[in-house]
Amino acid sequence: MTEISQQKKVPYVRLGKSGLKVSKIILGTMQYGSTEWQPWLLDEEEAIKHIKVAYEAGIQSFDTANVYSNGLSEIILGKAIKQLKLPRDEIVIMTKVYGTVAREYKTAFWANGQNPDEHGYVNQHGLSRKHIFESVKHSLERLQLDYIDLLQCHRFDYDTPIEETMQALHDVVQAGYVRYIGMSSCFAWQFQAMQNYAINNKLTPFISMQNHYNLLYREEEREMFPTLKLFGVGSIPWSPLARGVLTRPYGDQTKRGTTDPAASRYANAPGTPDVMKRVEEVSKKLGISMAQVSIAWMLSKEGVTAPIVGTTSLKNLEDIIAGVHVELSEEDIKYIEEPYKPTAVFGHMYSNGLSEIILGKAIKELNLPRDEIVVMTKLYNVVGRDFGTNMLLIGKDPEELGYVNQRGLSRKHIFQAVKHSLERLQLDYIDVLQCHRFDNNTPIEETMQALHDVVQAGYVRYLGMSSCWAWQFHAMQNYAIQNKLTPFISMQNHHNLLYREEEREMFPTLKLFGVGCIPWSPLARGLLTRPLDGEKTQRGSTDWFIGRYSAAESTPEILKRVEEVAKKKGISMAQVAVAWSLHKDVVTAPIVGTTSLKNLEDIIGTT
């Protein structure tokens, strides 16, 4: 083996903050198995050739799964280890548990949508204790190994308690069948829930996440990557070449491209032609392949430890391996990323304290009963010294203008902001104090302790959060609960018919914690109250925010349908939009605002 060792080209990196080292490219083995399972797969003889080439190049990490070709992929990998005499002390074998391993290679429950229970596979899928132990046992038999280096949960199991799953995973590690555990293909809120349970109960935590990520699918950058960074967990993305779509000019197809439904999803996604055109341009400019550009881009991302690559061509495998040494310039990275434009989260602020002053005066003048009314306010941003200063729009660092320690969620600012809000409101206490944003510069420990202390001091009754990522909310809430501090009872998030991104991660997170959702802008800054080509309001012509809704591709069709339903029901478009918001099971109460009494009465009529 000495000669082979000297030829190795692929470097090694630690997987997250664990002590396990993996090759910077991991060989995926989904493509090795039976053509009865998928028509583009390689047979055993050809697969072993690929594994040999990969190992000789320095790839010592191999990823498989129990369900790939219903176990045949594991069998082939196990045979390759034996035939090639791959040193067990060096190689890293990763497999997965969750799906059903059918008795025939041609059966693929994950693809045909059938319920395995109805075909005699009861207790043979999911993350129950029984299935985890049985699956590990059978994987070891197929691999002809004594232990698995990294056991990954292929999916999140909605039917099995997290407590049962994490205890079972811990126990297979303790029993010596598995060295490390990881997760695959789940939402960030699910990963947070499982990881926090393990940590809080002194069980084995995940060291890795095998998530879906490439130049044509970058949604993981929103929630998952920050979550992994928070926990020190390594990312080993699957499909870094988008099922091969990123390896050739747009429109060219392979056998897999014509038979694999996932490949067509990439090809038909908005932005794909432009991204691929730019990848092709950069590859020609640098004199390398499109695959190498795509791999180099991925390895440039801070959150990525090692992508999992698979191919049915030895030539392509060697080409991909060479991509590990390619470094793209910042200009090239920016250029190929630019066409991909995920929807951003955005928010707002109120009149440098005047809104609180007006509300306080109204409470006094109208003699509103303090025992009945609920007053909510927020803290985070700078309150300018005059009403004409909008710190969000001037684009300058407030500290340069003399506002040091007057923003964020530090202990000092929390106490000072609460004091000034109470003065402006002319009240003795605030019912719900909400953090307007997440503070990346203040430790969560400091923030949650300070928030707890203003509650204990009697200045505040309850706490809430606003306009943050689900992973941030999860981290803050979990810290409060584990340390017996005051938890959040509410989330004021951005949600309406034109912006529904919160349904991915935030809504399940709120449901998990039993937290109420009070969405802001349920009428999309008034855009949902009138036809798209209707009369513009003063706000509509001056509020830059409205342009972001209007520019969205789906907006015209949604507004058209809201208008149709409104006419059919004999109600206003605003009432349709608010009624839609209220029918979402996580929504407690939307926050509405209008500059017209008539519109306010119309909105109230929704209830």
Automatic annotation (TrEMBL):
GO terms for cellular component: cytosol. InterPro entries: AKR_Detox_Biosynth, NAD(P)_OxRdtase_dom_sf, NADP_OxRdtase_dom. It comes from the Eukaryota. The lineage of its organism: Eukaryota, Fungi, Dikarya, Basidiomycota, Agaricomycotina. This is NADP-dependent oxidoreductase domain-containing protein. Gene3D superfamilies: NADP-dependent oxidoreductase domain. Keywords: Oxidoreductase. The keyword Oxidoreductase applies. It holds the Pfam family Aldo_ket_red.
